[in-house]
Structure formats: C-alpha cells, structure tokens
Amino acid sequence: MKKYLLKAAAVGVCASVALSLAACGKSESGAEIEIPILETSSPVYNTVTAEIGDISEKYYGEASYGVSHEMAANFTRAGQIKEINVEINKEVKKGDVLCVLRSEEIEEQIEESKVWLEQAESTYNKLLAKGNTPANELEYARIDYELQKLNRQRLERELSQYTVTAPCDGTIVWINDRNRELNVNTKVYPDWLCMVSDSSENVLSCKMIQKIDSIGYGTRVIITSTLGEYEGYVTGEREYGDGATAQYIYEIRCDDEGVEGANKFKVCFDVYDKTDVVKVPAKAIKTIGERKFVNLLVGGVKVEQDVETGIEDGDMVEITNGLVGGEEVIINGE
Questions:
Q1: Helix-then-strand count for the chain, H and E
Q2: Which of 94, 271, 290, 310 could bridge 318 with an S-S bond, Cβ 3.0-4.6 Å?
C-alpha cells in the first residue's frame, strides 16, 4: 500500500510540472508570447550632388624680394677634370674660368686642321693669282678652302665646351658635389657644376615645400600686397637645399614697377581654368593603388564607381570620366 501511495505522488508531481511548462507558452490572456528580435539601424551617409560648373587649378604661397637670381654654370659634355676653381662664397665675374676638362684629343685635331686650312688657303690663292686657272678647278679650290675653315670653326666651338665659365657676376652659392668630390681627374657628365647668385639682379621669389609639375615658365601669377593687385608670370624655378629639407623657388616677373613698393606678397599661381566640368569634393575621391573611385548612393545602397580625375583647386576635383553630374556622392565612410 505504501509503494502505491509513493507512485501516485510522483505521477502527480510530473503532471504539475507538465502543466507549468505548457502554461509558459501562453500569456495571461491566453495569447502566445512573442520573442523580441534585435534590429540594427541602417547606415547614415552624408552625400553631395556631383555638380557641373567651373574649376581652376590654383596654388598659393608667399613671395618676397631679397632673393638674388641664380644662374647655373654647366658642363655641356662629359670628360675628366683638368683644372677646377670653385668654392662656396667665392666672388666671380662673368666669363671667369671655373673648370677645365682634359682636351688633348681635340687639341690635336685642331692642330691638324690648322695645317689643312693653311694648305687649302695657299692652293686657292695661288690658283687665283695665276689668272688663267680653269673656272671649275678654281671653284673646287675655293670650296675646299671654305670647308677647311668651317671644320676649324667647328673644332674650336667643341673645344670651348671643355671649359666652364661663370655665367654672371656674383657669388658661388651651390656646388654640385652631392655624389662625388670634384677634384682633378674626376669623371663628369653634362650637368650643372655650380650656381652663381647674380649680384646685379634682385627678383620676386616664392618658396614652396615641393615641386609642382604644372607650374612652369610663363605660368600666370596674381600678386597681391597692401598696395594693390598685380599680374606677373613665372620666369624660372630651382631647387634650394638637399634631401628632406629641400624647397623649390619659383622666380616671378612683374612689369609693373609699383609692385616693388612692398616687401611681402601673397601670390596665386593661376595654372588652368575650365568651364562646365563635372566636379566633386576632393575628400570624396578614394584611392587604392592606381585605382580611383567614389562611393555613390543608389536606391539607398552604396555603390563604388571608378572615375578619372583632372585638375583640382584644393577643395574640388574635376571628374573627366565616370560621372555625368547629378549623382549622389557619399563623402563620409569608407
């Protein structure tokens, strides 16, 4: 009897548990309990419209007078140094000999040409003095004489290339010895030997931290000072310093004499202007290796679009291929 009562109690407990579990799937009102699903929010993009308009490639800097114009003394041919006389801060006059290359071979050719020239001249003069020389024979002698003179002149011009002279009055400020010491017997190639600061000319100069390929001779420059606005153009460029500290100096000419009344100037290199181009903010352009692209928002979805770019003005970039204008361009996110 006792075993029967224990078994009945156990059955009752199991039934109670089963009823409790069944009740878990029902609400108090009898409806099923809904399990909440966590939803993520959609990404928010900042966009702009690819617009059609005008764009200018411009670069800005500061310029001043006080930097002398520098001219290069150049090797125009390869050779070995025979004599050299260059030192930093050395004062020179235009035409002073700075370096001479070995020229024994060309000097021998000049001596030989001198003999041939004298012979050709003598032959021509004798035939001319005879008076009865056939015209064709006299003409051949004259032509030979003229050819020998031309050959002598050519050799003398070539010999002049073995000598490097100062291009102007001034001071030697740079020597091109970055890769080797320039001494007697040093092998050199066509390149600049040294820079001479021209003491007779003072130019308006602008220093930039890097070379800008699109700025060159003749580039229009807008010059602004407290006295007014002037227009000039680039007349030269040169590197100042070495390595990571190097700067690029752009020399500017302005024909308006009033510009010299001030010392410091704001300058704008007005490189290029274009009208009716597709343009987007520079920060919208993404780059991976040589690939350039923008992210477009199309129907709420981000889509990558490859593009080709043209000029830029610092804030905006011209799109030469890939967009037609009116596209919604994403300017935030990756």
A1: 3, 19
A2: 310
Q: Which amino acid is at 252?
A: I
Is 98 in contact with 164 (CB distance < 8 Å)? Answer: yes
Same domain, 278 and 326: yes
- Report the CATH number that the domain containing residue 259 is assigned in CATH: 2.40.30.170
Gap between the Cα atoms of 172 and 87, Å rounded:
7
87 within domain boundaries = no
Which pTM was predicted? 0.46
**294 shares a domain with 262:** no
d(CA 116, CA 110): 10
Let me know if residue 183 belongs to a domain: no
Per-residue pLDDT tens for 134-188?
A: 999 999 999 999 999 999 999 999 999 999 999 988 889 888 876 567 889 889 8
Tokens coding 221: 């420059």
Helix (H) or strand (E) holding 154: helix 135-160
Task: Find the length of the chain.
Answer: 334
Separation CA 227–CA 229 (nearest Å): 7
Write the DSSP symbol of residue 30.
S
How many domains in the chain? Answer: 3
Q: Given 231, 251, 272, which residue is the final one in a domain?
A: 272
Q: What is the CATH number of the domain that holds 313?
A: 2.40.420.20
- Residues 305 and 267 occupy one common structural domain: no
d(CA 179, CA 307): 42
Can you read off the two tokens belonging to residue 23? 């009740």
In a domain, 172, yes or no: no
- Bridge partners for 120 per DSSP: none
Range of the domain at 321: 47-56+274-330
- Type of residue numbered 316: M
Q: Is residue 2 part of a domain?
A: no
Q: What is the C-alpha to C-alpha distance for residues 41 and 44, in angstroms, rounded to an integer? A: 9
Alpha-helical regions (H) of the chain: 2-24, 104-130, 135-160
